[in-house]
């Protein structure tokens, strides 16, 4: 097992910079997930850690050892790919043993490691089969087993569940999380799926455009996003955003007027740092925090016109439009029927609001602990 440290790591392809001076500390034994939209640089960053991509600037440390220019084979890491990368002409047992045989590991040790990995991943009955005789989930378990037998310092996963159907993805998420608990080895996992990130990670690294937007525990990112991008990316359904302006600031509170509520009194929202009067802002609120029924103290009341409803069984998602044209998603428990074009009043509790500056960076300016 080992820790990982990235120090001002950058990657350039010609004149184009795809990773910008990334600093990151991953502690020994942590499960860290890199998440972000397609093209944000998460797989490139993982390949640089592994040694499959060169580093244009900065340094990579595994434990106390600088490995920036060390070949991939000498870093003591194991990578699990999206495509499984199994040898089709070999049996499961041969696939698991192949890497150790290349390292001239003694036969008795190979058999012991392969047997241990097979039992851990429930592959015992499949050892004589070839990859074409396996399901997608079984192939992925073989790919993970091939990494386990190497007993690496750090496991690296590059979108390993992308080729599986929804039910298998849930099952494999549970298996990988259980594997981490059993082994206690540092794991770094790349995905574009924020649900995977929320359910598996000790810490999440949110990337955009080759830069780290925020690092933290899943619920810290959910409850206290550093900026509008993180607030919108983490969480499903996505956070709602309404536009507005700051009318005045006094005593650590901003009077914010929503464009969706012209002519109504502004809301008093606690803010941190300097917030100028007349600043444009985005007001964010999670769909599950909006109230449709009954009175709500200290809430903004926003009229909505229903456009459609998604019935999810345990909950219902209502998609409505404000008079200003903003789309608002409301998630409520249970099964509720709504009619298209029906008029509703969405109550937005003041203590559940997130405030983001609308200028460059769109940083969070809500004071103290953001709504949880």
At the fourth CATH level, what is the homologous superfamily of the largest domain?
A: P-loop containing nucleotide triphosphate hydrolases
Sheet with the most strands, sense and barrel status: 6 strands, mixed
Element-level helix/strand string: EEEHEEEHHHEHEHEEHHEEEEEEEEE
Strand order of the largest sheet: 6-7-8-3-9-10
Report the span from N to C terminus: 34 Å
Number of strands: 19
Helix content: 10-25%
Radius of gyration: 25 Å
- For the record, the CATH architecture of the largest domain stands as 3-Layer(aba) Sandwich
- Beta-strand fraction estimate: 25-35%
Structural class: alpha+beta
Uncertain ranges? none
CATH classification class of the largest domain: Alpha Beta
So what's the overall shape? elongated
Annotation field: number of helices:
8
